[in-house]
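Objective 1.3, modelling of assemblies. Example input:
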Amino acid sequence: MSVLQADSDKLLTAVARLLHEKNIVSPDEITERRAFTDAANPGQGARMVARAWVDAEYRALMLADGAKAAEALDIPMRGMPPLGVLENTPLLHHLVVCTLCSCYPRAVLGYPPFWFKSAAYRAKAVRDPRGLLADWGTRIQAEVQVRVVDSTADYRWMVLPVRPVGTEGWDEARLAKIVRDGDMIGVTVPSA
Ligand code: FE
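Predicted structure (tokens):
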């Protein structure tokens, strides 16, 4: 272990002890949150997207308050920052980035993939979002506006993609299977 890691471990232990002493967060709550985060995966966000595609009331809830919509599908959100949901339309495409570091909607998608944390992604998402989408093989028509949204420690974002053509009549479970993590960050779009 490097000196830097040893120091960061000491700092972490000291902060956790203070949070407990001041009755802000207990060790049990930290353990619980870690277990939820370890278990989180893109299938959770995909269930939300699929529900929003078939249920207008749920869609409205999801756009108003992502955390409440997650909890409505038994996805634990306690201790997590608020979750905003960005609605893609045929004329508006959202791309999520954390320009500073790696802030990702972990509660609903799990740990951030390596590319989301990379300096290359974070820089190009801001400088040249259309070029970045082209790198991913994602074709966005010229008339579609691309909005880049910065995810932060205080507020996380996920994308509600447009339901792809050719999925008419599909049930929720089948729809959820075609939704990938990249679709909910906006680097890709789902297809049937
Ligand atoms: Fe970050």
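The two ends are 47 Å apart (CA to CA).
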